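U., I forgot to send this yesterday:
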Amino acid sequence: MKTLWILSLCLLLSAPAGWPADGEGLRGYSAASAAAERDWEVKFRAIPDPANLRSSMQRLSARPHHVGSAYDKENAEWILARFKEWGWDAQIETFDVLFPTPKERAMEMVEPTRFTAKLAEPTVAADATSSQHSEQLPTYNAYSIDGDVTGPLVYVNYGVPEDYEALDRLGISVKGAIVIARYGGSWRGIKPKVAAEHGAIGCLIYSDPLDDGYHEGDTFPDGPFRSKDGVQRGSVMDMPVYPGDPLTPGVGATKDAKRLPLSQAATLTKIPVMPISYGDAEPLLAALKGPLAPAAWRGGLPIAYHVGPGPAKVHLKLAFNWDMKTLYDVIARIPGTSDPDQWIIRGNHHDAWVNGAEDPLSGTGPLLEEARALGALVRQGWKPRRTIVYCAWDGEEEGLLGSTEWAEAHAEELERKAAVYINSDGNGRGVLQAQGSHTLEKFINGVARDIDDPEAKISVWKRLQAWRIANAAADRQDARQRPDLRIGALGSGSDYTAFLDHLGVASLNLSFGGEDQGGIYHSIYDDFYWYTHFADTDFAYGRALAQTAGTAVMRLADAEVLPLDFDDFTETLRRYVGEVRTLASEKRDQTIERNREIDDGIFAAVEDPRRKTVAPPKEEVPPFLNFAPLDNGLAALQRTADAYDKALAHAADNGGPALTTAALRDANARLIAVERALTLNDGLPGRPWFRHQIYAPGLYTGYGVKTLPAVRESIEQKQWKLAEEEIVRVGKVLENTGEAIAGATSELNRAIP
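Result:
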């Protein structure tokens, strides 16, 4: 803390002149409206109460509340009652979705010795809710197919494509084998996907103590980290193809929706997959022989890590109840006054794999405190310009079910009305973590400057800046010199996905974290006991999240002009274009070098299926790609961003009542359309549900973002013709976005008398 204070003082003294300071005007507000807005925001931030956050978490996490459970519905009804108590217009919207649950699970090693896995998490005496076994979902991966397979075991590290390239270099195939992969390196659903593509017949995923266990510190209940019997449940749906109900892609899963037959559900796994603890994984890994695993593959278990195959042979048997279950989305509204058809949407899910104190209730509680505080402001006379919509989603854990089905069911209306979506998905202690649309980067920086850090007693913006200077080498110079701290890009993994990636709604994802430690993710130990002993124990940062997200909602809802910015956006896009240009050059250089090594006989011989020794084939040298369409699109964006800034400054100087209301409404409608312009109706190559051309989850990362995804992934996959085509398409998208910004500029100028 002392170091942080010293850093903060130095930053305050060395900040470049001209940086935005607390107390300055608000983007999108006239001077008079900015002063009134700040007064209301100060009143709002005084209301959220840590005691309420603690109480709501204790109530909502009292019992397991997964999709289809009685307590999931009870929680939704309790949340609905709170919204109504606080004066919101609220209702529950239901959807019927495919949600498989286990009816048979078995895993045993049959050679060279016999071992039967526990596949269970034991009760911890100090942790009362860990004993609720009759209500808990067992340890499993949702949307794994049924299967009964036996085969030799192969260790594949994290099970990402690069790991299979390493296995190829070792001359090891997984065809006909069961693979065991450790959590990490990608989203869990990528592991069985890649394994099946390489011919594996089954997949086990375990938490290695190097990544998630005693290597990090004391294990639960003595500390926060995963114990040897802890298991990470989770969905393995192929969400990079499409999230949501597997049987209703692209349409809301209402009772009368047309559904695919189960055999045509594209997002189910191709092989059976199951998660296990590192207690169950150790005997399997210890029995493996074959080559010693590469150094980077070796985990924290007290064994020599070998790759296999065998002599360990494993039998895996899984069978599921392929049932339909009902989702309960709680949707609440405060109607806007002058612009009711422009919506600011805020969401966090309420369902969990088990008791879910950290994931998701540490984020649900702040959302509820925001709603309580906003309701109190309405009773005091506050009237938001735009409609505010608060959403407590169901079914997030299984595959973003509740948010996706709601967004698909209301897609036509949302495309007209949704201005911004703000998401959270759990919360902890530490610094502000913000990711999202870069048109909102300057905006969220402004909000962060107005929120007090509960421990450091400086703004959360200043604390984050100090943290990046001290800890983040890649961002250090930016943090010192750039007026706005960079926010990360969004891929997938939470409820913003349908809004940003599918509908083109500018979005943010907010939380605090970095100082709390944990290893109970998706286990029975993610509960009130764990959270109040090892996480945000006094709920101070839960209050900070409520203050941050609620202030953002108010500022967006009340602005005369939506506070989007296109300078940071264009500068970030320029970085992305530079990255794909460099990637193409690196791929070319790597191919040339690899071919040279083959000519020189440097590559080790490998064996083909006929057992003949052959050299690896040479690859065609990639062409030089023409990036001019992207450069032209960037140039158009820069011109229109500059013109928009001038128009906005002119409007601020002539703001307030003088602005023409109808033209102002049209200007905001044009601003909302800017993010829509970044989408294409036919989506990304091979996955049309994902329409956004700047952000998407990677096809082989799952959660991790790929920026300029169509261009980047075609280069990564060496599809050069497709890369050339996508460069042209995305360049046109950038030009169209420039035209959308120009339209907003024109309307803004028209609003000034």
